[in-house]
Amino acid sequence: MKRFSGDISLVLGGAAGMGVQTVEALLVQVLKREGYHVFASKEYMSRIRGGSNSTEIRLTDKKRSAFVKRIDFLFAMDKDVIPHLKGRISKETIVLGEREKVCGAAPECHAIDIPFTRFANELGNPLYTSTVAVGVALGILRADEGVFENYLREHFARKGEEVVKKNIEAAEKGYAFGKHIAYHEGIEVRLTKSKAVESEILLDGTEALGLGVLAAGCNYISSYPMSPGTGLLTFLAEHSKDFGVVVDQAEDEIAAINQGLGAWYAGARAIVTTSGGGFDLMVEGVSLSGIIETPIVVHVGQRPGPATGLPTRTEQADLNLVLYAGHGEFPRAIFTPGTGEEAFLIAQQAFYIADKYQVPVFILTDQYFLDSVRSFKENGLQKIQSENFIIETKAGYKRYAITADGVSPRGVPGYGDGLVGIDSDEHDEDAHITESAKMRVLMHEKRWRKMEGVRDEAFLPTEIGDVARADIIIVSWGSNRGVIEEALEMVKRDDVAGLHFHQVYPLPKKVKKLLMKKKIVVLENNFSGQFTNLLKLEYGVKITDTILKYDGDPFSVEEVVEKLKAIS
User: Fold this and answer.
1) What is the rounded distance in angstroms from the CA atom of residue 221 to the CA atom of residue 235?
2) Which strand ranges, in their side-by-side order, compose the sheet holding 333-335?
3) Which residues on adjacent β-strands are paired with residue 76?
4) Ramachandran region of residue 552, left (φ > 0), alpha (ψ -120 to 50) or beta?
5) Are residues 417 and 504 in the same domain?
6) Could you tell me if 328 and 427 lie in one domain?
C-alpha cells in the first residue's frame, strides 16, 4: 500500500504544445471546486514548441503557497520529462504516462502505462487527451466525478453539445482508468477538504495584480510586450471594455513610458508593464517623471539577466535597477508583493502614492509569483478608497508652487482657468526654465521633501512568528513569503522568526528597532544580496548571513528548511 496524506505534489511534464498547461488549468479548477487547497507553479523553456516544461500542483490540508522539490505523482507526456526532472524524482515517486513514449527502450524506466493514444483514437481526436489526463488524476485521487462533469459542461458549453459530450466521455475513460490504477497499485490518498475553498476565487499572480490595478481606477496602459510582464497587458486588454481602460501596445518601451506620462499629465491613471530589459529603455522616462513631477506606475516582472538571460525563469535581481534608475536624484517608492492579497492591495497603494506625491512608483514582481496559482477568499482582497488629487486650477496657478511638504497642487490642462506648465529642464514655480542656483536649490529640496510623506505611509512588513522574542530574524521580500512561512512552521524553532517586506523602499522608520540586537539572515533570489545591502544602507544594521539562489528556479521548501536548521 502506498499512502499519501496531507500534502501531495502532483507534477505534469511535457514539451510546449503538448497540452500540459491545459491539463493544469482544468485540474486546478476542478480540485478547487471540490474543496481542496491548491497551489500551482510552473517552469518552462523559452520556446513555442518543444523543450521540456513542468507544472507542479500541490494539494494540501491547509493553505500553502510555496514550491516543493518532492514529486509524489509525475504525469510524463514524453521521453524528455524523466531526464529533465531526475533531480526531483525519488524511489517513492509514482511515474505515469504512455510507457512507449516516456521510457522508450530504457529498461530501468518504471512508469505506469496510460494508453493515451488508444484513448484518443477511441474518442476520435487527440485533443481530448488533456481531458483524459485530468480524469486519470482525479480517479487516482478518488475525487467527485460529478464535479468534473459539471465543470466540463460549463467550460465547453460555447463549443456545442457534441464537444461537451466527447469531453465527458474522455473524462469518464480517464477517471475509470485512474481508479483502476489506484486499486491495482495500492495507492491511497487522504486529503482534508474545506467547504470554504469551494467558493473561493482562483487567481494567478498576474490576475491578482491586474484586479488591484483595476480597483485603483487605472484607465490607461501603454506597454511593449516582454515576458513575464506582458500578462498584465493582456489581462487589462481582456477587461478593457468592462472597465474603460485604454490599451496601447507601443512601438517600444521608450514610447510606452512617455505615453504613460502623457496620460497622467492629461488626467488619466496609467500603468506601464515590462521586464528588466524593457525597463532599461524606460530609465530616461523615469527621470522625466522625477523632474516634471508627473506620476507614473511601472510594473517590472523580473527574470534572470543580464541581457536576455533566462527569459522564462525567475529571479529577484532588478531591485537595484529600479532603486537607482534615472539620472539625478528624486523620490520614488518600490512595492514587492508576496501573495495575491498583497498584490491586490499594493496595486492600489502604488497608484495612491504616485498620485498623491507625484512620483514614479514601481511594483516589482517575478516570473514565479506572476505564474503561480492559488485560491483566495473574496473578502481577503482589501479595497482601498480610491483618491484623485487633481485640483481645478485658477488664474495665476503655479504648477510647481513651493510648499511645506513638497507637494505642489496638480492641475491638468482644460480643468480650470490656470495654465498647466511643464518643463524637463530645471524650472521655477511657473514651469519656466531657469538656471538660477537659488531656484535650483529650492526646487530640488522641494521635490525631496515629498520623500518624508512617502516614508511615513510605508507599509510595515509582515511578522512571521514572535519577532520580538526571537534571537534570529529571517528577512524575505517579494515572492518568498510563502516558502519562509512554511519553512519556519516546519523547523519549529522558538529562537527564529520571519520578517517579510512587501514594500522595500522607502523602508518604514519604526521597523529598525525590530532588527536591533538580532541576528539577521536575508533570503533572496539574486547573487549579490541586493536587499541585504539596502537594509544595511537604510537601517545601519549588521547582516549575519544570507541565503541566496540565482539559478532561475524558486526556493523550495526543502532547501529553505535545510538552511534554517543549519543556522546557529
Assistant:
1) 11
2) 246-249, 220-223, 270-274, 296-302, 360-366, 333-335, 503-505
3) 13, 97
4) left
5) no
6) no
Mean pLDDT confidence for 27-53: 92
Are 90 and 209 in the same domain?
no
pLDDT at position 109 over 80: no
State how far the Cα of 453 lies from the Cα of 444, in Å rounded to an integer.
16
524 lies in some domain: yes
The answer to the question of residue 385 being in a domain is: no
Q: Whole-angstrom distance between the N-terminal and C-terminal Cα of the chain?
A: 40
Quick one: average pLDDT of 473-497? 97
User: Residue 309: which domain range?
Assistant: 202-380
CA distance 354 to 351: 5
CATH number of the domain enclosing 263: 3.40.50.970
Least confident of 114-123, 244-253, 265-274, 457-466: 114-123
* Tens digit of each residue's pLDDT (9 = 90 or more) over 45-89: 998 888 899 999 999 999 999 999 999 999 999 899 999 999 999
C-alpha cell at 506: 522607502
Average pLDDT in the 20-35 region?
Answer: 92
Mean of the per-residue pLDDT values of the chain:
95
In this model, does residue 107 exceed pLDDT 70? no
Distances (CA, A) of 326 to 292, 357, 407, 444: 13, 18, 21, 15
Q: How confident is the model at residue 18 (pLDDT cuts 50, 70, 90)?
A: confident
The pLDDT, as a whole number, for residue 343 is 98
CA 536 – CA 324 distance, rounded (Å): 16
**Residue ranges in 410-498 assigned as alpha helix (H):** 437-456, 481-491
Angle between helices 129-140 and 20-33 (to 10 degrees): 40
Same domain, 224 and 358: yes
DSSP state of 556: B
- 431 and 515 fall within a common domain: no
CA distance 293 to 356: 11
Using DSSP's 3-state secondary structure scheme, residue 115 falls into: coil
Same domain, 135 and 217: no
Does the structure show a pLDDT above 90 at 506?
yes
Q: Does residue 304 contact residue 315 with C-beta atoms inside 8 Å?
A: yes
Domain contains 449 = yes
Cell 537601517 sits at which residue? 539
Q: What is the pLDDT of residue 105?
A: 60
Q: 400-418, pLDDT tens digit by residue?
A: 999 999 999 999 999 999 9
Is 316 found in the same domain as 234? yes
> Does 340 reside within a domain?
yes
Residue 507 DSSP code: P
Q: Are 246 and 220 in contact (CB under 8 A)?
A: yes
**Which residues pair with residue 53 across a beta bridge?**
14
